[in-house]
User: Fold these one by one.
Assistant:
Number 1:
Amino acid sequence: MRILVIEDEPRILAFLARGLEAEGFSVDGADDGRAGVERAARGSYDLVILDLLLPKLDGFAVLRQLQNRLPELPVVIVSARSELETKLRGFDLGACDYLSKPFSFDELLARVRAQLRRGRPGENGSVVHAGLLSLDVARREAKLGDVVAALSDREFRLLHHLVLHEGEVVSRERLLADVWGYHFDPRSNVVEVCIRRLRQKLGEDAPIETVRHGGYRLTAA
Ligand code: CA
């Protein structure tokens, strides 16, 4: 398993590299945002650990570029910034997890492993169908008629969740808990934002129905 750490603080980079290598991961480092994006695009990494305050290109810009170029690559943010707003922005941009500095290495390791486990069932190339919608698990791609949409990790997981519960009303609280897997502020609008993005990507025939006061339902397209 290969991990890229994008972090400009040499002490933290060395600490993470040492710790992760001791756990059997192969680790590369990049000490500014631009170098991080380039490295990520060139190497085949299984996961990226990303700092936010970085020279040349800040962490959010890095995240946006990674989402565009490598939407299936899980990104865990590790940042001294611990405000909810910053965290939500990170999740909105597609980060899988967020850890505030200072953090314990064991917690980081647990979260990294959780993300890597999550990715693995997708690698056997299975495709899930619901009506006219098909979801390619390995490619993180949704197909609806002529529309082929590349999805971010979060969009994919939300849609996958709805597909697995086709026809059922799934509440936004449940989506928050199951897809974000994090103790999210229940007032957060990340679910709405993600649904909106999915509908934009799938076009006007997107089979996602909003059920008032209920949640969302994948209708048989
Ligand atoms: Ca930094």
Number 2:
Amino acid sequence: MGLFDRIKKAFGGGEPETKAVEKYDTGLEKSRDTFSAKLNAFFAGFRTVDEDFFDDLEEMLIGADVGYEIAVQLTDELRDSVKLQNAKRPEEVSQVVVQKLVDLYGEAGEAEDNALHYAATGPTVFLFVGVNGAGKTTTIGKLAHQLEQSGKSVLLAAGDTFRAGAIAQLEAWGRRDNVPVVTSEPGGDPAAVVYDAVRRAKAEDVDVLLVDTAGRLQNKVNLMNELDKIRRVIVRELPDAPQEVLLVLDSTTGQNALSQAKEFNQTTKVSGIVLTKLDGSGKGGIVLAIRNALHVPVKLVGLGEGMDDLQPFDPNKFVYGLFKGLIQAPDAE
Ligand code: GDP
Ligand code: MG
């Protein structure tokens, strides 16, 4: 059974049950509305399935930020689809398109490991990277709160020493979460801060160390060198760490987030993606584009401003949130 049928069976027509599904539901409302509007506008002009139809469909999908490769693949596979050849009414054709898209999401995520990995013994280190404003510090603040609530001891490292405001921002999260923060003077050496933090995490047997980093230095090469230096400092002290290098991306930037992902992934070994601000974005489809281009799994999503709006990424809930109204309930057919 493809993902489309599984979702239809699990959610079709019914109301979402769990709190997490609800979060995805509301967090992806904008993306869902944007996509539905594009799809509806496209099918309002529907006449027949011909060459123009496929060209226009491809263009619409690219415009809907599902990613170029997926748009092309989906259109190609639909060309040969018997189901599509048999569909006559616009609603039928639309349903075939949505089914194909949802199933592609499912296939692309089949072997994907969306879980965050923790050390079997000793401190776990998560290193957060990404451009300024992407949501690194906020994500660390929210995750620290959740980890702390689940009974883990947490330590934060203010590795973004470039801006004084960045240190203060992480300190503020530390106070709110009741979690200690290792800092330096503004302009201090980030690797030295991280070194102190790792030593402290070891000495105090801290469960999880979350490392914030600068999104921008004098130039890109400096930034990548700095991240490399930080990583080496961590590995020297804890050979299995960092357990995760999480690239934080702002989903509202759409294609730009995708280019950033490609760039970071070339120079820094990224183990997972945090996609933030989905609540404010009409471009949730970018998850598929990123996954397809990089084969790096999305591990966390920001679905709102609240502490609990940072959620583990669940592909099924995500697709449900993105396509909800577009998947017809079984009895509606
Ligand atoms: P950094 O420069 O990467 O550390 O980014 P910040 O953590 O400072 O975040 C930049 C802005 O994005 C802040 O105003 C955050 O409140 C906001 N932000 C981060 N994540 C989310 C999210 O998931 N949803 C919303 N609505 N805002 C977010
Ligand atoms: Mg920051």
Number 3:
Amino acid sequence: MHYNILTLFPEMVENGLNTSIIGRAVAKGILSVDAINIRDYTKEKHGHVDDAPYGGGAGMVMQAAPVCDAYEELCRRLGRRPRVLYMTPQGMVFSQSIARELAKEEDLVFLCGHYEGIDERALELIVTDSLSIGDYVLTGGELPAMVMIDCISRLIPGVLGSDLSAEIESFHDNLLEYPQYTRPEVYEGMRVPEVLLSGHHKRIEEWRRRESIRRTLERRPDLLAQANLSRKEQEYLKELLDAIPDSRQPEQGEIPE
Ligand code: ADE
């Protein structure tokens, strides 16, 4: 996967992505990260990339030309026109399933805005997808781009130590992950659940699935509608629901107290 990030702060993205698991995958050549400075494409004497908004109002707007020129030069270099993901709180909220879809691409372009946004004409010309990381407003698109790159990268074969761990994760199967324990067996008087010490793989698997279901019901009941449960697991879920007093049955999307 080749990530290309159009930004006014290339060092922010480079520094953020050159460590840990992503940095190692870049060093191994599984991923590449190319941070392209939009400022390098300005034709203005003083290197300006922004100007006051037509119609008035606070702040500055990033001009269309440097953004489009940076993208067009990248396309000429690559010999194709990759998807352009615009980082904006107005976009569709990023999710594990969007990450799975994007992980299939060969190249991705992340367009990071700053100030009061980017001239709408540049967005109309080059953006294929508008994506948000949640309903809050950040100062720029660099952190959202890094969040998405991290999430997409761990789905690419060879990036994680074991490809299995990308699958056994929160949101796999729309269930939250079961609780994990490591040594010592007793900490502050709290014991590791007996079943995990049993060496009985089938029982451990069953316990973990049940814990995932219980946790999802308690913390993210909205996810359960999409979960793929066996008949036995559906019965377990019903038992859990029956144990909740009637008036306290969680609504779809409600976070129980
Ligand atoms: N830019 C500013 N806020 C953002 C958000 N929540 N998601 C994506 N891009 C953004």
Number 4:
Amino acid sequence: MKNDNCIFCKIANGEIPSKTLYEDEDFRVILDLGPATKGHALILPKDHFANLYELPDETAAKVMQLAKKMATQMTEKLVCDGFNLVQNNGEVAGQTVFHFHLHLIPRYENDGQKIGWNPGSPSQDELEEIKNTIV
Ligand code: AMP
Ligand code: ZN
């Protein structure tokens, strides 16, 4: 299912051109236009799912298999030193395009990028309470 107002639907389905690294019946992998590092790419499902919560299990499984394949190929060809997979859900989490996508970010020694967080220091009691909230 496509969404007429969604730019990633148009890109994924070839209505808007992109630098495509890979395509099959379910996905297109494109170079990000605002890359964090050289080779930063995005896996886009061809169907419209706004985020991870909407992604069917079967598609989610295929996404991770494709991420592994692309990361392996890109690491070999780009000779990068490491790799981040990043996937944002919701504005507060940094999502700016509301069509599910997985970022493939090659990392290089001294690439100047920081992808991370400021670690907290919860007590064991706080961790226990959080665990009991989740499960
Ligand atoms: P996010 O912040 O996780 O929603 O990521 C959106 C990503 O899409 C950003 O890294 C943008 O640089 C990238 N982006 C936005 N528009 C395009 C486009 N037309 N082609 C390629 N990448 C895009
Ligand atoms: Zn879409």
